[in-house]
Amino acid sequence: MDNYFHVVVGNARDKWKEIGRRLGLSETDISAIDEEERGDTTEGCRKVLNKWRQMNGRNATVDVLKQAFIELERRDVVDLLEHEYVGN
């Protein structure tokens, strides 16, 4: 899953809060991460993804991650995630 997280961080870190919302994180969790990272979108994005994985365990799948980006209308990221899957 770490390779997929690298794709997300590299291509969508500016939308990390919305990614967190789409993945089911609470506003409290998002606010806490925002406060901790003080504007560092790279670390904010990485923490959101790790929190999601921690909360969902085996249910934190690439398909769920791709669906979040479909909902965000970021097909470019979906395509990159699919390419990463083929590459593994």
What is the compact description of this entry?
With 88 residues, this protein is mostly helical. Helix content is 77%, strand content 0%.
Protein described:
- With 88 residues, the protein is mainly alpha-helical.
- It has 6 helices and no strands.
- The protein is globular and about 35 Å long.
- It starts with a helix and ends with a helix.
Key phrases:
88 residues, 6 helices, mainly alpha, 77% helix
Instruction: Calculate the terminal CA-CA distance, rounded to whole Å.
Output: 11 Å
Instruction: List the helices and strands in order.
Output: HHHHHH
Main beta sheet: none
Helix content: over 70%
- The average pLDDT is 95
Radius of gyration: 12 Å
Helix/strand-derived class?
A: mainly alpha
Count of alpha and pi helical runs: 6
Task: Report the principal-axis shape.
Answer: globular
The count of β-strands is 0
- Beta-strand content estimate: under 5%
Oligomeric state of the chains in view: single chain
**Can you tell me the residue ranges where pLDDT is under 50 for at least 5 consecutive residues?**
none
Helix and strand layout, with pairings?
Elements: H1 2-12, H2 16-22, H3 27-37, H4 41-56, H5 62-71, H6 75-87
Helix pairs in contact: 1-4, 1-6, 2-4, 3-4, 5-6
